[in-house]
Amino acid sequence: MQEIVRAKNLTVSLGGKTVLEDITFSIFSGEMTGVIGPNGAGKTTLLRAVLGLVSVQQGSLAVFGKRGIRIKEIRPRTGYMPQRHYFDRRFLLSAADVVSTGLLSPRTLFKKIPRKNEQVKDALRLAGMENFFHQPFQNLSGGEQQRVLLARALARRPDLLLLDEPNNGLDFPAQQSFVALLRKLKDKENIAIIMVSHDLVSIAPAVDKLLCINRTMHVHGDPAEVLRSPHLDEAYRCQFDFLTTGGSTERWWH
Amino acid sequence: MSEILAYGFMQRALLAALLVGTLCSVISFFVILKRLSFLGAGISHTALGGIAIGLVTGLDQVLTGSIFALGTAMSTGHISRLGKISEDTVIGIFYASGMALGIALISSFKGYYPELFSLLFGNILAVSARDLQVLALVLVVVMVFVIVFFKELLAICFDEEMAIAGGLPVGPLYMGLLATIGLTIMVSIQLVGVVLVAALLVIPGAAAYRLSNNYRSMLLYALIIGLSGSFGGLFVSYYYPVPPGAAIVLIMAAIFALVVFIKYYLEK
Q1: What pTM value is reported for the model?
Q2: Is B163 on the interface with A (CB under 8 A)?
Q3: ipTM for the complex?
């Protein structure tokens, strides 16, 4: 397995305030990592640092072996799915139009992107949305819109996929279906996936590793171990109770 | 019809309606998609401060008003991009300050300003050949910018965060869009005036948005509505004693009301 992201004692400040401090982790190809933590823990900032959108004050961050401002060079190899509140759900684009926006980069300035681009078709197929090519985006359900946005993130055939709260606003079956699709993609395409969520229950069963942060890193490792760790309570600043059924362990907070 | 075309001032007015109708419809498309309606209203009202400077100093009022409109558009974008103050707050301050400056200057330098009324409410019938040249030039500049960067502007309107992550030059493109809005306001003031120009930047796009399922048809509908309002208002004002600026805006508002009414009953 190839190391895709390596962070060592990573510290990021925004507007003079330290948002992330002393974060250390590695992410490998074909691996799905869940980043969990309460609201305001710095999860989105961590994704933005990996994209090179915010600068690193201390420590080091390497993505595909590139550091610092050279991280921008690897953006074509990175797919990103920002939080849902960034866009207008009623925007007048078809599913294919939305996906084709994922192909835009400084290289495509002054160039025409054909409407029936093969990369767009492939991305929709990977997300299981090939039959929705001409469908207006605003007519799709929340789960279908998330799949189209996933297709947009896949449009450039990335080796690293960054997903920011992809399950937000989806009902439980839609969450399960979306996570199952991600697992399929990860195994089939050997993509490294970093998925941010404040809801650990929805992602813990699906990921290979969990990284729990709340400004600093509280715990990182196998999901079962993370869920049992007392550092989890520390990060969320609340007490979790265990509920054990048939050998599997689930936790609930109150 | 042939009677209308017999007059030179009407020929110029019809050409101005065509140019401004096209320009405002295209800009209206982005104003609605990027939710910049308040910015359009704010910039146009801020121009009053610049116009007042022109009136009291004897400079060209359209030029001074335009500098204010363009300056407001760019400053609003720049200040809000710094992230400390929202766009709405910035334009709210500029809007009121520009109007206040205009009122203060016009009141302090007591004089006779016959052109003030037409600058406030527009006079398309007074458009000169030079005005048409400026209009055509602005239309060409705006259309070149929009056509060359259309897909990028659309992506920024849809999801700015994703556009930034994709490495697009979002800041310069957004400032370019604001500059085109400022330029459009500048040349449209002559048609409908400072007070009513915001309607041209909002109504065609807003009505088209309600009618459309995709951005392509929205752009087409915005053009049809913008041109219908511009020509319709001009004809109404020729036959009835209604100022053309007010007639243009009222026709567009009537189209919008009709669209909302029809859509409401169709979707019921």
Answers
A1: 0.86
A2: yes
A3: 0.84
